[in-house]
Amino acid sequence: MKIDTSHGLSCEPYTAPHDNPCINRGTMPQITLIGINHKTAPVALREVLSFTGDEADVALRDLFQQPEIRELVLFSTCNRMEILFIPARGDGQDCVKTFISRFKSVPVEKFESALYIHTGDKAIRHLFRVACSLDSMMVGEPQILGQVKKSYRNSVAANTSGVILNRVMHKAFNIAKKVRRETGIGDNAVSISYAATELAGKIFSDISTRSVMLLGAGEMAELAVEHLISSGVKEIVVANRTFCNAITLAEKFHGKAVKFEEMEHFLKEVDIIISSTGATEFILTAPQLKRIMRSRKNRPLFFIDIAVPRDLDPDINRINNCFLYDIDDLQDIVNDNIEERNKEAVKGERLVDEAVIKFINWMESLEMVPTIVAIRKKIDAIAQAEIKKTMHSMPHLSPRDHEAIQRMTRSIADKIMHDPIRFLKNMGNHRDDARYLNAARHLFNLDHTEEL
Amino acid sequence: MTLDTIPTGLFFIATALYTASTVGYALYLFMQKEKMQHTALSLILAGFIFHAMGTLMVSVQMGTLPIHNLKETLSIAALALSGMFLVLKTKFNLKILGIFAAPLVALMMMAMVALPGAPVPAGSFLKGFWLVSHIILIFSGEAALALACGAGILYILQENAIKAKKRGFFFTRLPSLDLLDSTSYTCVITGFAMLTAGLITGLVYAKAVWGSFWTWDPKEIWSAVTWLVYAALLHGRLTSGWQGRRSAIMTIIGFAVLVFTFLGVNFLIGGHHRGFTM
Questions:
Q1: Last residue within a domain, chosen from B115, B134, B162
Q2: I want to staple A368 with a disulfide (CB 3.0 to 4.6 A). Which of A26, A151, A228, A242 is the partner?
Q3: Which residues of A carry a binding-site annotation?
Q4: Integer Cα distance of A157 and A154 in angstroms
Q5: B165 interfaces chain A, CB cutoff of 8 Å
Q6: How far apart are alpha carbons A30 and A90 in whole angstroms?
């Protein structure tokens, strides 16, 4: 499906016979999006072009100073940099490119080939897909929506977004929420750490009452435990052969460092064990564990072995109330889940397409001619309905009286509409037509079925 | 419509509602939509209300609880089960147990409706405080133990999924092992306490009717066996940490023995409770 939203879009379908389509044809604002992302540019280039938080703010205000730009939202993450704008005159694209080049001191030729430029429905679709995390490197990752929201807030604070971008951004947030709610795009864990946390949740009902012990203080352990910590475990114990490393890591998590030899004692107290030592042999065997299980009265233990070669005897998984997952098991889960997410993403794309069509319809209604037609139709309908009501209760009136009342009502309606319609028709010299059209549509409640 | 047909109608409505609730829970199991679970719960609650009204009317008519034949006994057992499920659901919010409880109740009700009502023998031996207490306690206790078995089955399904590292159909749908285990445990404690009290009131009643607490009746012997199985389960749990799988298996064994005591003894052996399942 392709929708043409270019300037030359014909307004014939909306043209009533009494309208002159030649008077100030609607100037459809052209939503434009210029950006780069992880698909079009290598990290070296993304680094150069991305804006840090403060930089983005300065850039936003700077670029908005350009007379070519009417509305502007700018966002930048480690994987993308996107500039969404409505041009005031021309298409504004060169202006934006030059601005990037000047602001980042990079010649245009260096990055031009990595840029994508979308206009109209393609720009809207791109924005919606980004907000829905359909365009993310890890499809369905939840952070992107927050980042988009933040940059929109900056635009609102800097007063750079107007009626069109306000609406398109709100729609983007709505569709993102809808996609998350109605598809399973964010349902499944797609990192080892998430997968481990998900599994822990299937064993223990309340993670916050459980404690974790790390065996080995390497970077892998840190990564694996990351998500468990953010979901709030009770306590973290770090056991390491080199005690000072244990202390460093324990400090980082506000946990407790213990000597490696004390491991067995702490096995009686903790509930989740993440092992990542460099040992070449099993550091815990099944018979050893059977004994420990007896002394902890069979309370369940969840082992995560991310070491290669493995630290933990695979037979541990056969002991009652012991659950052991190694790195491959977790990786399998992650791969399955990625596949699952990609399936769900197809549903998400469909929801995005729907939202784009709806938005385009609204944009088209912001044209002057359809707005005037809609106002006329509405007032005429009200007038006709009132005449009908009055006539119904006055059957004694002659046909001539009838006609007189008809005429009078119509002329009242015409007189009331005259000034607002003249105002709308002569808007050409206002800076922002869309704003007035939007206001007019609100004043006459023309889009009553659709909430903002 | 005579006075007799009203309760029959109520039982039919209750059966229909329980069946609808079963469908609701099945849909919830497959589609995981909260709304379905809410609907299914409302349906089983409505079924329980109709069922209880019907039972109350019959009881008032007869002047005692209707447990003279298998038809009536099944109905009371189903009522106890749906009631117990509603209580435990409210207390622990374990939605998934409905997947076990609703179909069980619906099946019992369907069997109840299909069975011909045997003529009620004359005689007033089924009256009195001790007997009514005995019946209510035993049936409620058995209902709680049935739910313990349900939670036990779900535990084993979930544990198998986790151990096999196959995150299949049940893994995503079932709650944590922790929750299933503690629910099962709570059900066992509740059920065991009621069963114990029910057996004691039964003994008191036996003394009053037959002049002796214990007559080595097969029903009595098997009731004692059932009681011992659950006593062993609780003992193991408290002293040697029979958590999880072992406890779950015991609730299933216990429930099998219980069903045998409830129905099997009457059909296969006989004894002084025989009339209830005629």
A1: B115
A2: A26
A3: 77-80, 136, 141-143, 147, 216-221
A4: 5
A5: yes
A6: 10
The one-letter amino acid at A436: Y
CA-wise closest residue to B95 among B170, B169, B174:
B174
Q: For the domain that residue B35 is a member of, what is the CATH number? A: 1.20.120
Does any CB of chain A come closer than 8 Å to the CB of residue B166?
no
- Tell me if A299 and B243 make a contact (CB, 8 A cut-off): yes
Residue whose token pair is 């405080």: B129
Q: Are residues B111 and B218 in the same domain?
A: no
Both tokens of A31, joined, read 């939503």
CA distance A200 to A301: 10
For residues B110 and B144, state if they share a domain: no
Whether A266 contacts chain B with CB within 8 A: no
Rounded distance between C-alpha atoms, residue A188 and residue A336, angstroms: 9
**Residue B121 falls inside a structural domain:** no
Domain-ending residue, one of B115, B138, B160: B115
Best CA proximity match to B147, nearest among B270, B41, B251, B63: B251
A286 to chain B, any CB pair closer than 8 A? The answer is no
Is B2 in the same domain as B108? yes
Q: Exposure of A398 by Cβ count < 10 A (0-12 exposed, 13-18 middle, 19+ buried)?
A: exposed
Q: What is the pLDDT of residues A229-248, one digit of tens each?
A: 888 888 899 998 888 888 88
- CA gap B4, B13 in Å, rounded: 15
B131 with B268, same domain: the answer is yes
Instruction: For chains A and B, count residue pairs whose Cβ atoms are closer than 8 Å.
Output: 52
The interface predicted TM-score of the complex, written ipTM, equals: 0.81
Number of domains in chain B: 2
Residue B211 tokens, joined: 């002049």
* Claim to verify: residue B172 and residue B265 sit in the same structural domain: yes
pLDDT band at A350 (very low <50, low <70, confident <90, very high): very high
Q: Which of A205, A303, A338 to mutate to test the interface with B (most CBs of B within 10 A)?
A: A205
Mutate to test the interface with A, among B32, B94, B160, B178 (most CBs of A within 10 A): B178
Q: Are B178 and B106 contained in the same domain?
A: no
Q: What are phi and psi of A205, to 5 degrees?
A: -80, -30
Does B9 fall in a domain?
A: yes
Assess if residue B96 is contained within a domain.
Answer: yes
- What are the beta bridge partners of residue A326? A305
B224 phi and psi, to 5 degrees?
A: -65, -40
Express each pLDDT in A386-439 by its tens digit: 888 888 888 888 888 888 888 898 899 889 888 888 888 776 555 567 778 888
On whether any CB of chain B is under 8 Å from the CB of A323, the answer is yes
What's the rounded Cα separation, in Å, for the pair A257 and A375?
A: 73
Detail the residues of A annotated as belonging to a binding site for substrate.
77-80, 136, 141-143, 147
Q: In chain A, which residues have their Cβ closer than 8 Å to the Cβ of B240?
A: 297-298
In a domain, B120, yes or no: no
Contacts of A9 (CB under 8 A, 6+ apart): A28, A364, A367
What pLDDT is attached to residue A234?
A: 87
Please give the Cα distance from A432 to A418 (Å, whole number): 22
Same domain? B48 vs B150: no
Structure confidence at residue A272 as a pLDDT band (50, 70, 90):
very high
For B205, the domain range is 126-278
Please provide residue A211's backbone torsions phi and psi, each rounded to the nearest 5 degrees.
-115, 155
Phi then psi dihedrals of residue A36, to 5 deg: -135, 150
Give the residue-averaged pLDDT of B58-69.
77
> Known catalytic residues of A?
78
Number of other CB atoms surrounding residue A145 within 10 Å: 20
Q: Which domains does chain A have, with CATH numbers?
A: 29-182 (3.30.460.30), 192-334 (3.40.50.720), 368-443 (no CATH)
Run of H or E including A61: helix A53-65
Q: List the structure tokens of B110.
A: 């369907």
The rounded distance, in Å, linking the Cα atoms of B81 and B194 is 13
Binding-site entries of A for NADP(+): 216-221
